[in-house]
Amino acid sequence: MALDEQGSDDSAVVNELNSILEMDITGFSGHPIASMSTIPHHLGAEVFSRTMERNAGRLHSFKSSAIVEQEVIEMIADLLHLDIPYGTTSSGGTESNILAMLAMRESKKKIKKPEIIAPKTVHSSIDKAAWILGIKLVKTGIDRQFKANTRLIEKRISENTVGIIATAGTTYLGQIDPIDEIGLIAKQNRIPLHIDAAFGGFVIPFLYDLGLGHHPFDFEIKGVTSISIDGHKMGLAPIPSGCLIFRSVRHLNAITRKVPYLRGASSKQSSLLGTRPAGSILATWAIMKHLGRSGYREMVRGCMKRTQLGKDRVDENPLLELVIDPVMNILAIESREVPLNVIVLKMEKRGWRMVTSPLPHSLRLVIMPHVTTGAMNAFFNDLDEVSTTVPAD
Ligand SMILES: Cc1ncc(COP(=O)(O)O)c(C=O)c1O
Question: I need a labelling partner for 371 at 20 to 30 A (CA). Which of 130, 167, 199, 250 fits?
Fold first, then answer.
């Protein structure tokens, strides 16, 4: 498309854009059933739209953003059982994971051929980070519940190991690795342990409060040295909102670089990005202050209730099966009769946007706050029909 010599007026542009935007199925339809992001909380959306020009890469100008960023880090760390945190906000789980792995590599600089051990269920951003950072990723096996096998991790520790990674809320299944066991191994061997809680960080603490499971995963476990957690997933924040928290200032220093042409708080940066939106940090702050623990707890309660509805619907259909009992608000469904690719095509024809996971091959549903009970029932009514070869009456 060429850039027109003369621009069009506002309404013409907006009309054209609106017709393009119609292609999307947003959270407002209650529809998308396989996405880890959701409709941002209305307060966050309002703050974000009012503060779009603020640049967290220039904290000497936007002093309020520096204060608010620190408070976001502190509130998140408090949720993750850490009193004195060191960290940075980020553009999301990918950036946080890259930075966490950079900190591992940099804090063990003497190791010339760095290796990081991670179970094969880690998010693809870990592979991407290893690729960017020139780190060898040593992938380890999992058990029948798709959790990391601690013994296999221990076996792969070598003089080149600079870190171990585990996940609290895997992308495909929402599974939680045995982080207490892995933490012990990491501590005994003096190896940093990063936890990718990009999805689970805003869920697991509230599962405990709701009596839906006790899964130690955070800084309560002595061996855990860093955690990534995303506001723009279950934190209800507008994109981009991620956070990386370190237990030790040494690890934060390892990813901090001087920026000679900027002053004050901006003269050192710990993020990958230079210019970055302060609006989403301010929005995350506003949402966290507004919702408090009880607000997030109620959100998780609702998601888990609708997840249970989904589980019941799968259990009622003899041709469908869950890969694991849901630990959090993710369902992975296998089909006994109709191949998954056929199910996906038929469901897409009915207007659903479908996603499958490769490990194991299954339909992936993420029951985010925007997924209503009505949408769940409509989805499973359709899924019941397409998952059998027997035609409906
Ligand atoms: C466990 C986990 N980590 C990291 C990421 C990457 O997050 P982002 O897409 O915000 O970079 C995801 C995304 O789904 C994830 O599920």
Answer: 167
From-to residues of CATH 3.90.1150.10 in the chain: 28-39+292-386
Task: Tell me the CA–centroid distance for residue 50 and ligand 1, in Å.
Answer: 27
Question: Does ligand 1 lie within 6 Å of residue 198's CB atom?
Answer: yes
pTM for this entry: 0.96
The CATH code of domain 43-289 reads: 3.40.640.10
Indicate the burial class of 180 (C-beta count within 10 angstroms; 0-12, 13-18, 19 or more).
middle
**CATH 3.40.640.10 placement within the chain:** 43-289
- Report whether residue 92 contacts ligand 1, using a CB cutoff of 6 Å: yes
Atom of ligand 1 nearest to the CA of 200: 1
User: What residues of the chain score a pLDDT lower than 70?
Assistant: 30-32, 393
Q: Is 314 in the pocket of ligand 1 (CB under 6 A)?
A: no
Cβ(199) – ligand 1 distance below 6 Å:
yes
Task: Classify domain 28-39+292-386 by CATH architecture.
Answer: Alpha-Beta Complex (3.90)
